Amino acid sequence: MSRSAIRRLFRQPKQTYTISAAARLFGMPAKELQGWIDSGEIEAVETARGLVLPWEEVVFFGMDFWSQAVVEEALGVDLAAAIPELVRLTELNVRLPRIEVTALERVAGREGRTIDAVLASELLDFVSAEAAWLSREIPGFADALSWPAPALTVSRA
Q1: For the chain, is the Cβ count within 10 Å smaller at the N or the C terminus?
Q2: Is 29 left (phi over 0), alpha (psi -120 to 50) or beta?
Q3: Angle at 115 between CA 4 and CA 132, to 5 degrees
């Protein structure tokens, strides 16, 4: 993990990245990144120059590759300028049944992820299901939910 690569991606963004340039940001061989593209985890765009990765795709992949906590730490004082407030990490203290906590611990261990990452992923499904209503209730919600891509129009039904 390179703090300088994270800072470059967020503070000096390019509209698109070649596969080799994006692979360098992630510190992986281009062939490995191509594998992620082939599996559909990151979407490349065909251009006259060949395949490129839009900034939004590189950021979306990077937020999983590095973990959001690592990204936020690397950005430091530039965090507020780089990531919208509603997308930034925050603390939450909750009381949950032991079975749910144990399940989170086991799934996180099996997947090599943190409990925070597993729970955030599950809560994103909840947030997405409630997106239309939450977009009316919370200023900036639709933009935050679609970040780093431009916000899509959310149904007001």
Answers
A1: C
A2: beta
A3: 85
